[in-house]
Amino acid sequence: MTTTAAIPAVKVDERIAGMPLWKRLMIRPEFGALAGAIVVWILFATQAREVWLSWGGTATYLDASALYGLSAVAIGMLMIGGEFDLSSGVMIGTSGMFAALFSVHSGFNLWLAMFLALLISLAIGFLNGYMVVKSGLPSFIITLGTFFVLRGFNLWLTQRITSQTNVTGVDQVGGYDAAHKVFSGVLFTIDGAQFKVDILWFIIITAIAAWILLRHRIGNWIFAVGGNKEGARATGVPANATKIGLFMAVALCGWLHGMVVLMQTGRSNVIEGVGNEFYFITAVLGGCLLTGGFGSAIGAALGCLILGMTSQGIPLAGWDNNLYFLFLGVILLVAAFSNEAIRRWARTASRPKSTEPVDTRD
Question: Helices 297-316 and 31-47 meet at what angle, rounded to 10?
Answer without folding.
Answer: 20
